[in-house]
Amino acid sequence: HLGKDDRSTALDFALENENLDLALYLTSHGVPMGEIYDPQDETIQTYLALLSSHSDTLSSKEKESFAFKMLDSLRAAGLDNTPTFNEFLKVAIQARRTELKKWVMEKDSLQKTCVSCLEEYEEITEPNTGPANCPCYFCYTCSVRLVDFAINQSGIEPAQCPQCKEPMGLTYLRRLQIPNERVDLFEKRTLENTLHRKVSGWFQCPVENCVNGMQVTSDSPTTFSCSLCTWQGCVKCGKPHINANCEEYAKDEAQLRKILELGALQAPEELIGGPPPETDVEDPLYVAYYQGRIRPCYYCGTATERTDGCNEMNCKNPRCGKQWHWNKGVYNERSADFSAGPRLYESLVSSF
Questions:
Q1: 190-196 — which CB contacts under 8 Å span 24+ positions?
Q2: In angstroms, rounded to a whole number, what is the distance separating the alpha carbons of residues 322 and 300?
Q3: Does residue 243 contact residue 250 with C-beta atoms inside 8 Å?
Q4: pLDDT per residue over 50-106, tens digit each?
Q5: For residue 215, what are the β-bridge partners?
Q6: What is the rounded end-to-end Cα distance, in angstroms, of the chain?
Q7: CB of 286 closer than 8 Å to CB of 280
Q8: Per-residue model confidence as pLDDT tens digits over 180-229
């Protein structure tokens, strides 16, 4: 730390040798120079003249940067009431105005017209933030609707910007803070759509969120065993059957669905005994036999028959084996009790 006299001597030496870096250091540290020298003092005037002289040798861009630096330096030196400070302040203000004009121009226009609803909005947006990282503008409400439609339809047709027809990008969904599971679903369905369009005979695993599949050719097997989710089934109809043909399976599936729909009904006080009737599904005897008799496992959907006993069920599917309640579905193992809750097979199991 230099005393007043030593500091004054050092500053005189720096000014005499036009050592700008040393002069800046001496004026920016310690007691402000404005408190030591009178602003009209020759030393101060020489210092300010050195700053102005150096600024004149710089390019426009360098001068702007130097001006911002000098504003801080002159303030620290207590010399912010001098003409030189005002000179640098004008340069800095002009530079900031130019910067803001450029920034606004890059943002295109503050006045935006949504290409979907045609409403006008005053909004500053980054360039190319449309659905396909394009300049097309959608208001927030229309953006959310567009994304929802794209997620639901991307497995049917390509998800794209309605204006420029370019493919929709994942960054657009993330900018709107769409939940990750919805983004994953969009990515999966977009991949499926791309594969269907670009790979001849592509079969997509039908399990939700599974991204596996295979290309089906004339030499390919008619069944597919997924190595990711363990699904097995037919590549012709996409149903989980291996041995039966598609027509037989569809018939059996329709019959099972009818049986499960009847099983969701309230069971009679006493179930009809004996083998199932070999009649049409609309026959009253058929309806009476299966009413309240067979329901799907709450967890895996395996058809389960209950003829008597309590409501506590143990799934016989070796891949499942979970306990569930005949009427309520959910089994709370922690409290060893049954409790009502949402059903995985709501379409087949109605409220009881």
A1: 190/154, 190/158, 190/159, 192/154, 192/155, 193/154, 193/155, 193/156, 193/157, 193/158, 193/159, 194/158
A2: 9
A3: no
A4: 788 877 887 877 878 877 877 877 777 777 777 888 888 888 888 887 777 776 665
A5: 202
A6: 88
A7: yes
A8: 888 887 777 777 777 766 677 888 888 776 778 888 888 888 888 888 77
Whether the Cβ atoms of residue 213 and residue 199 lie closer than 8 Å to each other: no
Q: Which two tokens stand for residue 284?
A: 């009253």
C-alpha to C-alpha distances, 73 to 12, 39, 66, 226, 295, nearest whole angstrom = 18, 15, 10, 69, 82
d(CA 130, CA 132): 6
Residue 307 carries which side chain, given as an amino acid letter? T
**At 21, is the secondary structure helix, strand, or coil?**
helix
Residue 132 has φ and ψ, to the nearest 5°, of -110, 30
Amino acid type, 263: G
CA proximity to 20, closest of 53, 43, 45: 53
Residue listed under structure tokens 């291996």:
242
Q: Is a pLDDT exceeding 50 seen at residue 139?
A: yes
Q: Cβ distance 297 to 313 under 8 Å?
A: yes
Distance CA(82)–CA(162), nearest Å, equals 59
CA dihedral 304, 309, 315, 317 (to 10 degrees): -60
pLDDT value, residue 33:
64
CA distance 155 to 189: 5
Instruction: Taking residues 322-343, report their average pLDDT.
Output: 58
Strand ranges in 159-241 using DSSP code E only, listed in sequence order: 202-204, 213-215, 223-225, 232-234
The reported pLDDT for the residue numbered 335 is 40
Spatial distance between the Cα atoms of 114 and 163, rounded to a whole number of angstroms: 10
Sign of CA dihedral 60, 64, 69, 73: positive
Give residue 343's pLDDT. 43
